[in-house]
Structures are given as structure tokens and as C-alpha cells.
Amino acid sequence: MELRILPLFTADSDDDATIEEQLKWVGKVYNFYKFSVVFWPYRTRNSNNTIPLKDLFGPHSGEVMDLWGGAAQLYGGQMSYILPVVFAPFRTNRIAGLTSFVAQKSRRFGMLGNLTADTKPICTVNTRKCTVLTTAHEIGHAAGLEDQEVDNRNLMFHSGERLSYGLDVDQRNRIAKSGFAH
For the chain, what is the radius of gyration of the CA atoms? Predict the structure, then answer.
């Protein structure tokens, strides 16, 4: 089973070492569970995968829509089956990462919990705040997984430091059924 991830960058995402570490851990985590991760079409930053937004605050709903619009301009039709992950240094250090859902037809913005047939996830990762498992955790949210508050060995653990990247069978099955898994 392939997971198709679209790495995107903002104009001020200049921390290549942090981003490479994030992508390395995405591969490590999901390969462990027999998913093949495909970073499409580019793994590193270049003019074809850079969105010209700077100084993201959080991002809030307007910024998410701007990021989605920038990604759609770059990759159009491929957006329906590839998970966009945007790396940017946020101005706030309150958030390490955020997964949002954009309604395809009405272009409304919705947060996690509004995952429906007409929504598409987009993950954003704060390169100033993230831990090595932040991107892998946000990919779980994009597949519809919720935060887990009990076991700090679970990838979806939310309330503190994750000690591992465990996923139970139901979580793995949910990822396998996501729109970016083929």
C-alpha cells in the first residue's frame, strides 16, 4: 500500500535539516507498518513546490485556504489523491503541526472532525516547534485518526512527549483506507 505525500514549502521555509528529519521519520514510521511512502514529485524544496506565502501565524483558516489555493495552482488535478504537507516556520510556537480539512465543492474551511466525502486534508508543520514525529502524527490526522490521550507510545498521543510510534490495527486500517493511500 502506497501513501502519496506531497511535500510543499513556503517561501520562508529555509530549515532543510528539520524538514529532511521530518520526512525521514515519516518513511521510518509508515514503512514499519508496511506502507510504502512516496514523496511526490519532489522531496526537497525547489521552485515547483514552493508556495509564495511568508510569515504564517498559525495557520488560521484564511492561511489554510491560501496554502490550499497555492498547492492547487501548482498541482491541480493531482490534489485529489495526494496528501499535501506544507512546511513553514510559524510566527507562533504554540502549535507544532495542524491538519485542516477543506471542502472541495464549496471551498469552505473545516477543522478535524468535519472529515466528509467532499473534504480534503492539508497538513502544516511548524519547523520552529516540531518534534521528529510531528509530520507522521499529522498524517494520521489526515487519515481521520484522533488524538490519543492514554498511551505515550502511540503515534497519535497528544498530551506530551511521544515515546514511540505505535499504531493499533484499527488505526492502520483507517490509514490504508484514506484518500491518499493507494
Answer: 15
